Amino acid sequence: MKHTLAVLVENRPGVLTHISGLISRRAFNIESIAAGYTEEAETTRITIVVEADDMELEQVVNQLSKLVDVIKITDLTGIDGIHRELALIKVKASSETRSDIVDIVDIFRAKIVDVNRETMVIELTGEETKIDALCEVLADHGIIEIVRTGKVALSRGPVPAKDL
Amino acid sequence: MMESRSDQMIKPGSERNLTGAEILLKALAEENVELIFGYPGGAVLPLYDALLQSPIRHVLVRHEQAAAHAADGYARVSGKPGVCLATSGPGATNLVTGIANAYMDSVPLVVLTGQVPTTLLGTDSFQEVDITGITMPITKHSYLVKDVRDIPRIVKEAFYIAGSGRPGPVAIDLPKDVQAATAVPETASLNLKSYKVFGKGNAGQIMEAAKAIRTSKRPVLYAGGGVISAGADGALRELCRKTGLPVVTTLMGIGSLPHGHPNLLGMVGMHGTVTANYAVDDCDLLIAVGVRFDDRVTSGLGHRFATKAKVIHIDIDPAEIGKVVRANIPIVGDARQILEDIRERAEPPEIADWWRQIRLWQESHPLNYAQTDLSPQLIMETIGELAGETTVVATDVGQHQMWAAQFYPVQRSRHFLTSSGLGAMGFGLPAAIGAQLARPEALVFLIVGDGGFQMTMQELATIVQYRLPVKIALLNNGVLGMVRQLQGVFCGERFSEIQLHANPDFLKIAEAYGILGIRVKTAADVEKAVQKALAHQGPVLMDFLISADEWVWPMVPPGKAITEMLGR
């Protein structure tokens, strides 16, 4: 099953390489990894989505925890929270198809962030499945390229991941 | 000299300013470093210049790989982190095998490398390699120092990380301009809020473990290198005394109980004793201490290993728990404390029947060998008998290593040094050098094959230069014996590239270095030769001409369960 891990690390050079290197050499099955600064200047938060059974998950968490720069790992999988990904989709859009695409974009509550004579770029934030669904519908119009950030996740309620 | 940014930030004219190199050596001295194994080069010129004024002794090896292995041998014997030093580029890459070796066997090392100046980093400049990148998977942690003022803190952290928890190598890469930059050295403190070291085990789990021992019918304690690195050998003996538990050890665990101890069933695994393997297979409680269920023990078959047993797994590294074998009672923490705590709560189980079974196995499957013209096993036994129990034994990798593990009567922990996890040929001689420098008063024996010996043979010069009286037992069969044995068993005796046709006359090699050489051709001469070697003040090389047809038995073929031994 898929697990979403919030990994808090010291914001030091090479820390992301440490994490990704460990993941690849221990042959863990990672679906996405997204990193960015946090409310604390010295801390980076990395959201990792990993496909693993219980035993594998335990290994992922234990091995990552051993890295000197890793502060805390929280499994957000069973916790009520907000899971989001951002996608930018460049799709073919002629004057004939443009209004169709605008309708689709409205239904998905996505945004059009670039238009020209031949294409549009659509921005969508949402859960993975919602982005998948939009991509599927837009495929009929011809997708030129897609970029996705990988999932980020935050628990609901007042308690931060570091205290969970 | 390259000017660094940090240089400009320090106010000029301060008399207490030191160079990065001086600060480093001062910081090493504060960590009680007495000895560095190293090899100089362009990117460490400032460091070697500063060494001239430092009380720290430098041992000049003949190849950087030997510097890492010697620091490793030093650390295994002394229990303190070993320190090695090399220049950038090829100096650093030559250390890699030694670092990997220490990582696999959880040996504390602090590895210092020179690096090109920070202004040239990333430009593929002369002798530049990304050594922190290269060694990332084989170090516990690493640092690329960019500011001279960070040196005291980094050194302090490196020694703390290397020696605490599950020990391992830590690398510090020092750009040349950082070595030359100056600063006022400040007292450093650790800044490691995310690094955790486990101490006492969970009290509830310890109670559970004690209860499981009391109610077990067929328990076995499986002791590994963690027992030795935690200094838990005494605690293990006391637990045995109180509970009567039978004990098997891994290759790394040899010495955790003295050879001949009534509770010791010998080594478990691929070349383990039949009794140890049968006992592990049949036990109802496996108390695993400081082990990682390596595939040379389990044959890579975690799911077929000790299948009838409830498993207590004691380890300081939480990532080892459940990695290969599911533990019923995991206890994370320091092996010595945990074994002491378990002993306090444990009561002897009723295992007289179990011991009867074990004694039956021991009687019907003793560890023995064929008496040939010159049996290698006899050489091990004779050296063990004559050298005495305080002797430190280093081995290389191969058949001789397994004969030493099986037949050399190791009596103490930290007295048997061997490359276990990595199985790195060439380890033996430099490790013996490190051991002899750690314990100048001790007798140090190297047991080595003619293949591995030739991988680091150049270190004979180091032995002579530093007057190290290492006694070398070279088991010379003219072949790569362990590979030959594997080809014999698995490739239908189609022997491929295992003949060492152009071996030199090793006595002439010894003579060339001014080392006493003794050739031994028959069993009858073994005792006399060993006595002569022991009587000689300086280093000795004994060239034992053994047959290529001597094989290591018993043997569990890879992929077979540990009860499916050949040659039992």
TrEMBL record, chain A:
GO terms for biological process: isoleucine biosynthetic process; L-valine biosynthetic process. It is an enzyme of class 2 (transferase). InterPro entries: Acetalactate_synth_ssu, Acetolactate_synth/TF_NikR_C, Acetolactate_synth_ssu_C, ACT-like_dom_sf, ACT_dom, AHAS_ACT, AHAS_small-like_ACT. Its EC number is 2.2.1.6. One of its GO terms (cellular component) is cytosol. CDD domains: ACT_AHAS (cd04878). Keywords: Amino-acid biosynthesis, Branched-chain amino acid biosynthesis, Transferase. The keyword Transferase applies. SUPFAM superfamilies: ACT-like. It catalyses: 2 pyruvate + H(+) = (2S)-2-acetolactate + CO2. Residues 4-78 form the ACT domain. Pfam families: ACT_AHAS_ss, ALS_ss_C. One of its GO terms (molecular function) is acetolactate synthase regulator activity. It comes from the Bacteria. Pathway: Amino-acid biosynthesis; L-valine biosynthesis; L-valine from pyruvate: step 1/4; Amino-acid biosynthesis; L-isoleucine biosynthesis; L-isoleucine from 2-oxobutanoate: step 1/4. Catalyzes the conversion of 2 pyruvate molecules into acetolactate in the first common step of the biosynthetic pathway of the branched-amino acids such as leucine, isoleucine, and valine. Dimer of large and small chains. Belongs to the acetolactate synthase small subunit family. NCBIfam families: acolac_sm (TIGR00119), PRK11895.1 (NF008864). This is Acetolactate synthase small subunit. It comes from Acididesulfobacillus acetoxydans.
Automatic annotation (TrEMBL), chain B:
It catalyses: 2 pyruvate + H(+) = (2S)-2-acetolactate + CO2. Keywords: Amino-acid biosynthesis, Branched-chain amino acid biosynthesis, FAD, Flavoprotein, Magnesium, Metal-binding, Thiamine pyrophosphate, Transferase. Binds 1 thiamine pyrophosphate per subunit. It holds the Pfam family TPP_enzyme_M. Residues 207-341 form the Thiamine pyrophosphate enzyme central domain. CDD domains: TPP_AHAS, TPP_PYR_POX_like. Coiled coil: none annotated. Pathway: Amino-acid biosynthesis; L-isoleucine biosynthesis; L-isoleucine from 2-oxobutanoate: step 1/4; Amino-acid biosynthesis; L-valine biosynthesis; L-valine from pyruvate: step 1/4. One of its GO terms (biological process) is L-valine biosynthetic process. The keyword Flavoprotein applies. Residues 396-543 form the Thiamine pyrophosphate enzyme TPP-binding domain. InterPro entries: Acetolactate_synth_lsu, AHAS_TPP, DHS-like_NAD/FAD-binding_dom, THDP-binding, Thiamin_PyroP_enz_cen_dom, Thiamin_PyroP_enz_TPP-bd_dom, TPP-bd_CS, TPP_enz. Its EC number is 2.2.1.6. One of its GO terms (molecular function) is thiamine pyrophosphate binding. Residues 19-132 form the Thiamine pyrophosphate enzyme N-terminal TPP-binding domain. One of its GO terms (cellular component) is acetolactate synthase complex. PANTHER family: ACETOLACTATE SYNTHASE CATALYTIC SUBUNIT, MITOCHONDRIAL, THIAMINE PYROPHOSPHATE ENZYMES. Belongs to the TPP enzyme family. NCBIfam families: acolac_lg. This is Acetolactate synthase.
